[in-house]
Amino acid sequence: MEHMPAGMCLKSEGFASSLSDPGSTLTLAKYCMQQDLPYADVDMPVPLSTFISYGLEFQRRFVPHLERRRIVSVHRATDAFRLLLDNSETIVAKKVVIAVGLSYYPYIPSTLSNLPETHRSHSSEHHSVQGFKDRDVVIVGAGASALDLAAELRNVGAIVQIVCRKPAIHIHDAPDPRRRSLIERLRSPMTAIGQGWKLYWCIHAPQLFRLLPQNFRAEKATKIPGPAGGWFIKDRVVGKVPFNPGLALASATVVDGRVNLQFTDDAGARRTLVTDHVIAATGYKVDLRRLTFMGQDIQTGIRTFMHTPILSANFESSVRGLYFIGTSAANTFGPLLRFVCGARFTARRISRHVARSRKHEYIRSGLQPCASMEESDPVRFRR
Hints:
This protein has helices spanning 28-35, 48-62, 110-113, 144-155, 182-187, 197-204, 206-210, 214-221, 234-237, 296-299, 330-333, 343-364, and strands at residues 71-77, 80-85, 90-93, 96-98, 120-122, 136-140, 159-163, 190-191, 194-195, 243-244, 248-255, 258-264, 270-275, 277-280, 304-305, 308-309, 322-324, 368-369, 381-382. It is α/β, with parallel strands linked by helices. The two termini are 46 Å apart.
């Protein structure tokens, strides 16, 4: 939660923002009803604070014994992994699931990364923007992060503008309150990440996406859907925050304590902006080399494409017993893995695979599974 502006709302609609449990007993809708919080499947933005409290309740109910420890290192052991925690405790595990989200992957273009950190930052660093009151800020980017931050900065009294290389900055249209006709739904089906057949297949066929050529997957995984602001942000930024589309960043230097930004447009003309601070709302880029806790013995054993893991149909990497989920798996399974709605597919697929693996391991060791055990049940065995 510390990586998102405190006043933001989720871009996804309510119906697409639930976590996954086996019986769907704690959807976002059910949680909001229990807590007497405003909720609608569509046309009512989900505040970040609501989603955080929902996530914490989900954890308390389904993973009550969560250990809040940082992993210092993960190394291979004989037929297992050895994990060192920040309290010097060591854990040995047969299987490890890497679920780091976006925290290790903020992307800052090289033209900005050379600036001193006092003058540049990534959008993920700003849960609070109070420190920018009365300061001049340029945001580089065209997506929801750029627009959400711009709205928050303007709200605290910063002088802010947005610059991006795309020819236009897109903001989603508000949901249509009327019921869509059958023809409209057939032409452009509604999904958890937007409308259209392209998004429909991304949501409903992640295993098919995995079979596509690697170059194609790498291109589409992060670009579908493209950068755009949530419909609810329009009133807070349009006509209130200057947009500068169609400008590519050429250089950035600090001159007399301020950042001098040089841009070029499509015609090659140059434009200069001078600001106190520049924020890179330039997204995230999966790169396993940035997972500094993973030992070199593991890093060298993982088959990768463009520094992203190549995964089996069950999320397992080429290092047996090591799994990657979330954004780290998007280059394999597609855009679905970048969104909360991907939790259901992920949880079911990986839990069944792990259960089957444990079943086979017990059988090989001379144990037999209980006659009543199903693949989806907790793994129970008898001698």
